[in-house]
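Ticket 4471: requesting a sanity check on a complex prediction with ME8. Repro inputs:
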Amino acid sequence: MDRDANTDSVKKYFYVTTPIYYVNDVPHIGHAYTSVAVDVIARFKRMDGCCVKFLTGTDEHGQKIARAAGKAGMPPKDFCDCVSGNFRDLTKALHLSNDDFIRTTEPRHMASAQALWRQLEASGNLYQGTYAGWYSTRDEAFVGNDEVKDGLAPSGAPVEWVEEAGYFFRLSDWQDKLLAFYDAHPEFIAPQSRRNEVVSFVKSGLRDLSISRCSISWGISVPGDPKHVMYVWIDALANYLSALGYPETSEEFLEFWAQSLHVVGKDIIRFHAVYWPAFLMAAGLAPPKKVFAHGWWTNDGQKISKSLGNVIDPHDLMNKYGLDQVRYFLMRNMPFGEDGNFSDGLITGRINSDLANDLGNTVQRVLTMVGKLSRDKIAYAQDDLAQEDRTLLKMGYGCLNDIRPMFDELSFEKVLKRIWNLIYDINKYIDHQAPWLLDKTDIERLKVVLAVLAEAVFLTALYIRPFMPGTADKIFDMLNVDNDLRFFKSVGVKRNFNGPFPKPIALFPRM
Ligand code: ME8
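Returned structure tokens:
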């Protein structure tokens, strides 16, 4: 497996997660977006020598799912099996490289969530009481009186009045500790705008949190009190621990947890950046290293919702535009963290200009020359390199150091712009060197130019690989590059490319 072939001998761990998606409905572009982003970062880290665990899965308990199952006329578990299968299919269709797919109805998760509960109870953070207040089933959230406006939660979801006995978590005790934690770990919440939002929410005061339900039964039983089920958010958040084997806290668990990144949409930042670190600290565990909340997609400027009938099905998109085209568009269209819009015009424009023209034409231009002019072997001696050759290679090799910090900030669109600068430089180099003329005048120089071009295209393929793995592998195949060289450890290592080279194929049809 390529992920093992590339892991450094001193292991650098990296744990990255998507939210686990509710199984009340079919997957749409928003789910595909988060999942592709996490896949890109997971693939980048693996190519960079890390030992990566990439987790995704489905959130299957709670009132919302119970109601959706009832509406479908199915027992909840059968309903979950069916819809969870749709999400699993989507991971395959998007070529996600997830290492695990967790379902909250699995025994391994239920045991883990109950262990977390017991830990919270043992630490004195739980007490029994009665909740009388608003609840939004769509958000699966308890909503304060002051937050309800015109019968709606801040998200616009309807609320209903709930009165039931249950368990509370002493969240109010955690206000100062959370603020101290945010201060000590400024990198914990990103981007900065979300961090500001969370800090001011916590500063405004925290109420204790109801964490069980007794009016519904579709959930994980509260340990020792099976009349109650756990509130679906404590159940759901625990998935990040269950997949690492909690309550066992092996050395590997701790290594992964110390390098953990939760990527979520901005809708669920409060659960991940306020409740989750409080639960974890209360249970004697460290919070995750980072929570990144990305922005929201709209369709032709409108909110995406079932009632507006404008939900975008990722399978339709892939059938219409192609997998790598969709993956590229999702990562390039808007800065990660900001909101953005989908339209057919936008994706078509990107495919035609960035992929067909820039990337596709450049690769085909180079590989056609390599095939026609190289006489089946591409190699150069370091001493043969002219200044222009060195400049292009420097631009190519230097790209890796430039994009590493951009990846750490999850600035995917900046990474892509940097890679595209390399593509523009390759084109300028071709125009200056005019290899088709060298074929008639200077065969020795032609060999060097083709070698530099092959190397630059090889580097381009390496850098686009996390985003468009299928396209990158097509380029490697056309250059006869071995599988074990398709990693960043190959950057800066001088190589030969050996023919005969297959006839280059067009990578992206124009739309
Ligand atoms: O919230 N634009 O699940 P969910 C961008 N089960 N991203 C979007 C989006 C849009 N229009 N719509 C959805 C849940 N998303 C809980 C999570 S985690 C312990 C539990 C993405 O099915 C985005 O990542 O409602 C958002 O946070 C997630 O889907 C919500 O998925």
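Notes from triage: The CA atoms of residues 118 and 224 lie 9 Å apart. Leaving this open until the requester confirms.
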